[in-house]
Fold this protein.
Amino acid sequence: MKTIFSKDPGNKKMMVTREFSAPIELVWKAWTDSNILDEWWAPKPWKAETKKMDFKEGGSWLYCMIGPDGSKHWSKADYKKVVPAKYFSATDYFCDENGNKNPAFPVMDWSVKFMGTDTGTKVEVEITFASEQDLQAIVEMGFEQGFSAAHQNLDELLKVRITKQKDEI
């Protein structure tokens, strides 16, 4: 499967669509459980590490991406709306290890939808930026390549979990 990106600079938006060959319950859990997120969120050879996560409306996820050299880059997602197994929205931003926003980097508003398909689950992400320049800055930071690589990680993880579930039956 391929991650599809489309940009709408005039409306300061980026859309990301990806299908996964797994049931919606499993894909939803992979996006909302910090233990599973840590396994796939960062593009290899980077790693994701959660410091704190409270997945609920008004909750947040504070995590870092750890580079191959051991450097840590912190981010935080503040959850706004959660509809289990269907949708969540969050404001995502770069920060320090205590969750204090870094104003030097763009803020992103994420809207993430999960839909069952005949072969698994379709995830649609709409990311809204404050300006066209912020959208461009995220693109220039390698967002598309990194998010595509993370989705590949998730594909591999889902295959392993589905195979494991079948073996347990």
User: Anything to note?
Assistant: The mean pLDDT is 95.
